[in-house]
Model the fold of this input.
Amino acid sequence: MDRTDYARLDAVALRQLIADGQVSAADVDTVAREAIMGVADDLGALAQPLFETSLVADEDGPFGGVPFVIKDSGPFARGVSFAYGSRAIRGVADEDHELMRRFRRAGLMAVGQTCAPELSLNFATESRLHGVTRNPWNLERGTGGSSGGAAALVAAGAVPVAHGSDGAGSIRIPAACCGVVGLKPSRGRTTSGPDVFGGMPMGVDFALTRTVRDTAALLDAVAAPSGLPRPVRPYGELAQIDPGRLRIGFTTLAGSTVDVDEEVAAVARGAAEMLDWIGHDVSEVATGFDQRDVVDALLLAIHAAGKALLLAPRRPDTRLLEAVSRSIVSETASMTDADLDSWVRAQRRVTGSVEDVFDRIDVLVTPVTAELPLAHRTLDYDDPRWTARTWLERILEFGPFTAASNVSGHPAISLPLGQSRSGMPIGVQLVAGMGREDSLLQVAAQLEQAMPWADREPPIFAG
Done:
């Protein structure tokens, strides 16, 4: 297998070649390492050198032998060092995160670790520790965050699938910026584990891929038992089945204070029009939640992260933290019960508003970001002028559409349905009712067929 063939295959196709004996897992591992290193210097997506040997996984799993990378978002894989993108944090995971165990059982072969911003609290993958991660479509632009290293490598054909985590849009925003698929499952669909949010349930771990079928098959492989609605058939099968006539709502409004770029809005509107042409009932809707409540609800998670840092057995040297992290730690120390009560009530209001939307529709269509991918250092996490609140307000100006589904727990996916006149990817978000990844993936598959992206390759490409 050469690099060109490898870089253009999704994970399902690659696994089929391995299962059929047309190529060995060892050969794929070798080619994957060459592909990653071929783009590594340009992209700055690796948090550390590639692992000397890929992490052990079940070669008979549904993704047996498929190359994979994990995100520097905490103690995720046994024996692997982590830093949360910070100069102040150093550790080695004593055990696997439960989702990592499921990735291993699925057969995914982790070959390395990707960059993330400090504490994963930025919609740009930039840090004092690692510098900037660059977009394979334009090296002067960012990848989004916080799973930007993962998105860059998937977009560049270096790996077909990559671990990501999403606390306010951190899978979907990099997916949109880099032109790949990014699913945030429903809260509880995948397992949570130790993270900087101190156990707060707004963050969800899953993955970024290049195809809807990879996303669906991977969810089948790693979904955890929960009280959520169970699909009547595997997601991989459901994604190939017409869901029938659904109620589709769409909006390109991000609140009274955020202007959405006309090219970005046009792609979302075009997706809604395509769904109408396919045969769904499409109408414009109002989401109903107040963006100020979204910020307040996210403060609950942000300050849980601050509390986790304050209570850590080896408390980080705050002098080595970046400015926003220092603000969070300082503010957390003076946090009151009244603050917590206010933020919890905000979370309930947002959740109620989102649930009201899905009493009226099955799937919501929105942009992912309000702008095209940003120039580097536009979102400067190390600027001491920011407080926790003003920082959240700033990053939500860039990504105003994603965080509400973290607050409410609803599943959402970013699809690379468009490109700007300058050639940058534009993502469209689909959100579904709680636990309804089946409907979400079925509509996503319809759009992938009607508005395909498989033939788009960025200038920095492993093949």
